[in-house]
Structure formats: structure tokens, C-alpha cells
Design a protein that fits this description.
159 residues, mainly alpha, elongated
């Protein structure tokens, strides 16, 4: 069933993204608008377009989200493979799981490193950003009585 929906989602998103489909939808809206005076702009006339567009939008959200999620995962796997087979830092693998603040900070540092400054700072930040969620999770899992004692955290393994 998963594979059937995945194929359906892919084909539907390809089909829905074509210019001819947009033109057909535009023509349908124009026809609906032109029929307004004929139906005296009644509630039924309005209900037709509202119901039709709501149903299509509701269903397309799930179809397009499925296709986009699979595309994103495939791109992420390809990028990870490029990182692993190149001279890039392996520490960058998995950074898509960082929160927004950590990603913004990392983006700034990588841009700075690209200009020839701060390469080591960018690498340290990747390590710190990856360790931050682990520290947060460990703090949440620690029992109340154990909060007073400090535990040593193992540093992340370097690749």
C-alpha cells in the first residue's frame, strides 16, 4: 500500500505541476465566474467553487507533502554520500536534525569559513550544535534526585 501511494503521489505531483493543469484550473474559475449572473450569484453558486477548491486543496496537501518528504530524504542521502566521499567534514552529516537557531549559527559560520576565516570555529560549532540536543535530552531524562550530581558527558566521536 505504501508503494502504491508513493507512486500515486509522485505521478500526481508531476501532473499537478504542469502549466496545462494551471491553465485548466484557471479556465474552470473563469467559467464559474461567468456563470455567476446566470445563477444570480446564489449561495449554491458560491458553494460549488468553495467545496471544489477545498476538497482538492485538502487532498493535494497530503499528496504533495509525501512527494516532497521523499525528495528531501533522497537529496539528504545524496548530500551525505558526497560528504563521505569527499574531503568535506563528516561532522556535517545529520545537521538537518538541528533546531533553527543552531542551523542559523552554523550557516553564518560556514559562510565566514568560505571567506577564508574561522574554519576551525565552524567545525567546533557543528560539534557543539550536535552535542546540544544530546545534553538537553540527558538533562530531561535525569531523575530529580540526580540533578545535584554532575555526570561527565562523552565527547562526540570524530570521524
Amino acid at each position: 500500500m505504501k508503494h502504491l501511494f508513493a507512486r500515486f503521489a509522485t505521478k500526481t505531483s508531476e501532473w499537478a505541476g504542469k502549466p496545462v493543469i494551471f491553465i485548466l484550473a484557471l479556465i474552470a474559475v473563469i467559467i464559474w465566474a461567468c456563470l455567476g449572473p446566470l445563477f444570480d450569484y446564489s449561495e449554491t453558486w458560491q458553494l460549488v467553487i468553495n467545496t471544489g477548491t477545498t476538497i482538492i486543496t485538502f487532498l493535494m496537501v497530503f499528496v504533495l507533502q509525501n512527494a516532497q518528504t521523499r525528495d528531501t530524504r533522497a537529496i539528504q542521502a545524496k548530500l551525505n554520500e558526497i560528504i563521505l566521499t569527499s574531503h568535506a567534514e563528516n561532522r556535517f552529516i545529520g545537521i538537518e536534525n538541528l533546531d533553527e537557531e543552531e542551523l542559523k549559527r552554523l550557516d553564518e559560520l560556514v559562510a565566514k569559513a568560505a571567506k577564508g576565516r574561522g574554519e576551525t570555529e565552524a567545525c567546533r560549532t557543528v560539534e557543539a550544535a550536535k552535542a546540544a540536543p544530546l545534553k538537553k535530552a540527558a538533562a530531561r531524562k535525569r531523575p530529580v534526585a540526580a540533578k545535584g550530581t554532575k555526570q561527565k558527558q562523552r565527547p562526540l566521536e570524530k570521524s
